[in-house]
Each structure stands twice: as C-alpha cells, then as structure tokens.
Design a protein that fits this description.
The protein is 79% helix and 0% strand. It contains 13 helices and no strands.
Length: 355
C-alpha cells in the first residue's frame, strides 16, 4: 500500500521534533558538564589566531600551545585579582548602597511629582529596588565564578583542542577523500565562526575598556567590575548593552546625583552605539547579523538550557548554528530567516536554495 506523501512528511517532522526535544532535555540535564566544555571551545576558537601566528613565525606547535596556555592563565589571574577584589568590595558595601539608592530614587519620584508627572504607577515597582537592578548581573558573575573551580579542566580541554586543530584539515581530507566538497565547506564554516568570535571579542574588549575610562572620569567606584560586566554582556546584542549600563548608572546615582547618572547613561549609550552599530558591522559584515526576535529567543532558550553562562554564550551558539546552515544550499533559506529583515540575501555569490 503506497504511503501518503503528506503522512510521510508529517512523520518525518514528528521524528525531528522528538529528536530535538530529547537532545535539549539531555543538554539541560548535563548542563554542569556541557558549560565548561562549551566555554573551552569558545576560548579555543579565539586562541587559534595567536596559535597560528606563532606557528607562522616558526614556533613548533607544542611550544605555541604552551605559550597560548600561559597567556590564558595570565589573563585569568589578572581578571581574578582585579574583578575578585572589586566584587568583594561591592558585596560588602551593598547594604549601604541599597539604602542610598532607595533614598535617591524616592527623591527622583518626588521631583517628578513636583513637575506634574504622575508617579503612582512607579511607586513600589521592583525595578526601583537595588536587588532587582543587580540581580541579573549577579547571576552572570555568579555563574562565571562557579566555573573557576573547573578552570584546570577547561584549560586542559583548550590545550587538547588547540593540539588537534593543527591536524584537523588533514584528518578531514583523509576521511572524506580528495574530491569531497565537505572539507572546503567545513573550512568555510570554521573560518566564519572564528571570525565572528574574534571580532566580537575585540569589540567587547573595546567596549569594556571605554566603560572603565568613562567610570573613572565620572568617579564611579568599582570601574573594573562594571567594565568587565560590559565586556561580557557585549556578546548579547541589544539587550546586553542595556543590562550592562544599569549598574554603572545606578552607582553614579548612588554616589552623586541624577545629573551624573544621566551623564553616565548618555555616554554608555554613545559607547554601545559607536562600537555595536559603527565599528562592529564594518569588521564583521552585516551578513552575520541576527534579527532582534532571534536574539531574544536565543537568549531565553540557551539561558533556560544552560543557565546564566548559556545566556552569555547564546549569541555565539546561535551564530554557530546560523553559519552552519549557511554552508549548505539546502538549509541556507533557514539562515536567511534568522537574519535581519533588511538583508535580501545572505551572500551575493551564493546560489538560491535547491528546488
């Protein structure tokens, strides 16, 4: 008896959906194992550029990997010293900050009422509480600090990935054959992912450095902590920049007055617009963009699956999926749907999806 085409498509869809649910359920159950491993891959992809540069200047692969690993340890040590001390000071001063913040916000509400603005709907809102303002930031930093216990495992994983990276093209060529198109497609895929992560990391570093300079000029306490927060949250477009600005603006209000808070918020916006909307698109190219809806959904989805660190890695993970979809003509249309609405085509030299 012939099988109805519609029933066959429905059955195929149900199998794919069931497989997806099983995979996501397993990922969520194994989040404590997957998060350090994904972070190690993230670091390894970024570190391939200095690794290959060291090899080009004549350093043997083991020596180049050791130098990169020492660099990672050095950066990790500096971050733990500066950020750890700043986070400790902030935690100890948090009760005093809460009282001052509450008094300042009540003063702002009184001033708004004196200007004839109805503030009855704002009274009692949780966003006016310091704990609510810092809750998301604390979740990110708390999740990252929990990874420090696995730092040795993460570093070993990075080292082994970098050692394998040198011989991976030869392995693929031997496994798939000389005439196979898969090695070239895999190479384009890995290069696109590496380019995205490297450019995003440099732009995040620039954002964090500018935020540190801004807060030092204003006189806000713990500038390195809030600069590091801006660096991390810059990996989350649109939403991340807004969240990263909250603690700096709140601290400016706590230490000074409303005018300093508005001044700090203005320059936060200028930094994020300048880096995210001017510098980053020129370095990365608009073809690697994601729609605002996809950004929000990926943030919620990966945060639900992997926790706070999953929210941090949500855009790199989604971008990896998008780039993988771009590498095949059969799935390129899905990558187009994930991109911004103003992009008419993913790449001018790519053919349309197969009929």
């Amino acid at each position: 008896m012939p099988i109805d085409t519609r029933e066959s498509i429905s059955m195929k869809f149900m199998i794919i959906l069931a497989s997806f649910i099983i995979i996501i359920t397993g990922m969520r159950a194994a989040a404590s194992l997957l998060v350090p491993f994904m972070l190690a891959i993230f670091l390894a992809v970024i570190c391939t550029s200095p690794l290959f540069w060291l090899r080009r200047i004549g350093a043997p692969t083991p020596v180049a990997v050791i130098l990169v690993a020492v660099g990672i340890l050095g950066v990790g040590f500096l971050v733990s010293v500066f950020i750890g001390n700043a986070l400790k000071d902030f935690t100890m001063s948090l009760p005093d900050y809460q009282k001052i913040f509450h008094q300042k916000t009540m003063g702002v509400l009184v001033w708004l009422e004196s200007q004839g603005i109805d503030t009855s709907q704002l009274d009692g809102m949780e966003i006016l509480e310091p704990k609510s303002v810092m809750r998301i930031i604390t979740g990110f930093l708390g999740g990252l600090s929990g990874l420090l216990a696995n730092m040795f495992v993460i570093l070993l994983t990075v080292i082994f990935i970098l050692l394998e990276a040198a011989g991976m093209p030869r392995k693929l060529q031997a496994a798939l054959g000389e005439t196979a198109e898969s090695p070239a497609g895999f190479s384009r895929f890995t290069e696109s992912v590496k380019r995205y992560l490297v450019v995003k990391t440099w732009c995040s570093l620039l954002t964090g450095a500018l935020v540190v300079v801004l807060l030092k000029v204003v006189g806000v306490k713990q500038p390195y902590l809030w600069g590091f927060t801006a660096f991390l949250l810059n990996y989350v477009p649109n939403i991340g920049s807004v969240i990263a600005a909250l603690p700096g603006v709140a601290m400016a209000l706590i230490q000074f007055d409303l005018s300093h808070a508005l001044y700090t918020g203005f320059w936060y916006a200028a930094i994020n617009i300048g880096v995210s909307n001017l510098i980053e698109p020129k370095l990365m190219g608009s073809r690697l963009g994601l729609s605002t809806l996809v950004v929000f959904i990926s943030l919620v989805f990966w945060g639900w699956v992997l926790g706070p660190v999953g929210m941090l890695l949500s855009i790199p993970l989604t971008m990896t999926v998008k780039i993988a979809l771009e590498s095949s003509p059969d799935t390129r249309w899905i990558a187009l749907l994930l991109g911004p609405a103003h992009i008419a085509e993913i790449s001018p030299d790519t053919p349309p999806p197969a009929a």
